[in-house]
Structures are given as structure tokens and as C-alpha cells.
Amino acid sequence: MLKRELRKKYKNLRADITPSQASDFGLILANGLLQIPIWDFFYYHIFLSIEEKNEVDTLPLITLLQGKDKNIVVPKVSGKNSMENYLLTDSTPFKKSAWGVPEPVDGIEIPESKIDVVFVPLLAFDTLGNRIGYGKGYYDTFLNKCRKETVKIGLSFFGAENERITDVNVNDVKLDYCVTPKKVYEF
């Protein structure tokens, strides 16, 4: 199936999820992550949810990471297909971007080479670990700059798409895991 078809399908499915359900699913996903062997690392990159797009609520995961004394890194768009990554602290100031993404205004920048685990936003994924985002390429560009051993974990309201994504390109980065409310997928 083509990415554009899946984007449309999953945007429509996501639109039916209430804010309360999104919050509940965020907690379920955070608990599901406890099954994955990622807790000995130091730097965890996490996207901040866009409420208006009914994205997975990442606040429960941030709380979990803080409770385990992990270094949390959050992104800020810095140009075409480019992101900078900042350490999340109690004093990190945030501002919403033009897309409605909460982004750090400034702070301690963390290079991609230090990031051990990336929680990746997505609209859909297939059984091979291919993911579909919004199509701008920010995360694929970022993930290609990370170390090969960086663990990539998708967070999704929905299970894997059974039909293979047919228009995967050479710059698309596959997931290592995807956590859904019903299952943890390993690729």
C-alpha cells in the first residue's frame, strides 16, 4: 500500500480517538515499554505530542523516564528536514512551533551520536518495521545521523498494517520496536 493512502487512512482513524482515550493509551504504552530491554541506556529522545493531531500522549513516558533518572532529549526543528536536540530540564522553556509542536526555546544541545533510544512519532507502520510519518522527512534525516545501534521505537494507537508499504525509499529508517495498546512488535 502507498504511504499517501495509509496517511489518509490513519489520520481518519486517529481523528476518532478522544483526548481521554489518547491519554489512557499513553499510559498503556508507557507500561508496555517496560517489556523492552532499553533501561540501561543514558539518553532517550522523545517527541512531544501535538494535541490537535491526536498524537500519542508522551507525558506518561516522560514521567516514567524521569522516575528512572534518565536523560531525556527533546527535538526542535532547525531548518529544512533538520532538528536539534535539547536536554529536558526543569527549567527548559517551550514554545509551540507553526505546526503546533511544543519545542524547547533553548538549552543544552545533545548531539545525535550520544542518543541511545529514540521514541519515534508515526501515523502507521507495517509488519516489517517500516513507518509512515507526516511525510516531511525530519525523523528519517535525524535517525540517519544517529548511531546504527540507536534503538528506534515507534508508539502507535493501532497495530501493524498487514499490507506492506510499497513506496519505502533508501532514506527511510526502520523501527526496532513498535508499542501499541495491545502488543509490542519487535522487528
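The above is record 1. Record 2 follows with the same two-line structure.
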Amino acid sequence: MKRMMKLILLTLGIIMLLKEIFLGIPGIGGAYILSLAWAPLGTNITLYFIMFILSALDRTNEARFSLSVLAFTGLLANVIAFFPILGMFMHWLMVFLMIAYIFIVINTREYRGNTTYYDSYRAGETVREYKNNK
């Protein structure tokens, strides 16, 4: 995965982890969600959808499938979280899944692209000749 995409997914993962920790607190998280008429769940669904799109469409990402599945699971968990008691358990589940998401993003190799330089004038040379002619 490219460095900028890794930074974006890592930032979104940390934000979602902190949100899920807060919303999973019994009583406080539920009162916060109900007082804002379920708007925090709507923002969570939107952010998980953005994470899903970014991770699914990144062709340079080795862990594209697992990151996409985790983001889609977060999207579904927040749809289920509209039910009050069940929602608390969904937020607890998503805390652990977001920790896994962050570890996957951190441990995914960075994509460097083609790092060799092609020179059409020196195309027929061997490596030894190339090093000697530098």
C-alpha cells in the first residue's frame, strides 16, 4: 500500500477506535447516541463506508480483502447498533476489530513500484558492465 493511503487508513482506524470505545461505554455512550438522535451512528456508517471504499479500491494494497471485510463489518455493526442494548455489544466487538484493523494497516508492506531505471541506450549491458561504466 502506498504511504499516503496507509496514513489515511491508519488515521481513520484510530478515529474509529476512539469513537467505538466511547460509544461502547454502558450508559454514557447510549445516552450520547440517544441525545443526538442516532446521528453518531450515521457518521460511523459514513466513515466505515469511506474506509471500505478506500481499502477495496487500492490496487497496491496486499491486505485489501481483510481490510475491506473489517470495514464492511463495521458498517453492518453500526447498522445493527441502532437497537440500544445490542448496539453496546456491537461497539465492543468493533473495538477489538478496529485494533486488528490498525495492526493490519501498520504491518502491511509499503508499495514502492518499479525502482529500477531503464535506459534504452544501455539496455544490452550486463549488471557488471553497468556498474563498471558508472
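The chain has one domain: 3-133.
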